[in-house]
Amino acid sequence: MIAVIGAGAFGTALSISLARNGPVVLWARDAEHVEEMQATQENARRLPDVALPQAVTVSSDLTCLAEADIVLVSVPAQKLRAFLETHGPKLAGKPVVACCKGMERGTGLRPTQVISEHVADAVPAMLTGPSFAHDIARGLPTALTLACGSERIGEQLQARLTTPNIRLYRTTDVIGAELGGALKNVIAIACGAAIGAGLGESARAALMTRGFAELVKVAEAYGAKAETLAGLSGFGDLVLTCTSAQSRNFRFGQSIGAGETFDSGVTVEGAATAEALAEIAQDAGLDLPITRVVIGLVRDELNVREAMDMLLQRPLKEE
Ligand SMILES: NC(=O)C1=CN([C@@H]2O[C@H](COP(=O)(O)OP(=O)(O)OC[C@H]3O[C@@H](n4cnc5c(N)ncnc54)[C@H](OP(=O)(O)O)[C@@H]3O)[C@@H](O)[C@H]2O)C=CC1
Ligand SMILES: O=C(CO)COP(=O)(O)O
């Protein structure tokens, strides 16, 4: 059986799709939330208007993990450590698939590194790529990356987690898959801010392209492979997130650009990841101009016009 930790939008969507292969248990920390989902067969708080199939059992009791041979963890990257500090030992020895996109503030660690710190004999893997929760839950076609350092376990996970509407490509480049997914969210905030401020589609294309160059610079410095970054988990997800108003990171940027408020309860991974990235970039001697302006925008230390001037007035260089 497959267990999914975290009944957010993504965990719920993955459970719905995986249930087409067999039984799934979806764990949520809040017993009241679980009761609501059981009563209505829907996760109205996080993924409204999609029915939970019978093959999904919703529970707030982690003893369900004993029966699971694969565990997907779908809590936000900044919340992963808190979950594992309490419950990590229950995952010992199992393949644990991180489904979150981010870099931890204060440590700069990737989700699979946080898992390895807290789960004994962990076999960490990563599921990432261009997909909105609602698309997956509605059965629309998607293609994602499954990254696992072990070729053998990666193949097993690829087979078990492929569903009728999720086609999985496999890689052993875990670093590349994780960093692509984390960093594209920062660039999506920049693109959203440009569009929200009315700077136009040419500005968005420039930010996506130079943002991708920034993503590649960081990820290669940490050992990622160029082909992973050019694939679904990097370029693919950058395109989706920077061009769709379904993206929360993009919408958050758009609200900054338009001078509007944004609901602080909405998960926006790119804001914390930009800060984490700046912390590690300084130590690694990396110059990340787009990340820098995103931090300025998020902290409200810059407006969009000042951010654009900062980017445009940098010394001229070769592409
Ligand atoms: N939504 C999407 O389209 C996609 C999301 N992702 C990634 O999935 C990850 C999760 O996002 P998403 O599901 O959308 O987020 P949501 O905001 O919808 O849900 C977050 C979930 O995490 C739970 N949670 C938070 N902290 C803890 C904790 N300490 N212990 C246990 N559970 C916790 C929340 O529980 P509670 O409700 O009790 O607060 C909630 O169920 C992110 O990294 C995101 O980038 C990836 C692809 C697509
Ligand atoms: O990662 C995602 C799409 O692949 C979801 O993006 P948001 O978190 O910006 O909504």
Automatic annotation (TrEMBL):
List positions binding substrate.
Answer: K101, R248, N249
One Pfam annotation reads NAD_Gly3P_dh_C
Q: What is its main location?
A: cytoplasm
Binding sites annotated in the UniProt record for NADPH: F10, R29, K101, A133, R248, E269
Gene Ontology terms: cellular component: cytosol
Give the residues the record marks as binding sn-glycerol 3-phosphate.
K101, G129, S131, K184, D237, S247, R248, N249
**What PANTHER family is this protein classified in?**
GLYCEROL-3-PHOSPHATE DEHYDROGENASE, GLYCEROL-3-PHOSPHATE DEHYDROGENASE [NAD(+)] 2, CHLOROPLASTIC
Per the record, the similarity remark reads: Belongs to the NAD-dependent glycerol-3-phosphate dehydrogenase family.
* Name recorded for this polypeptide: Glycerol-3-phosphate dehydrogenase [NAD(P)+]
Gene name, Swiss-Prot/TrEMBL: gpsA
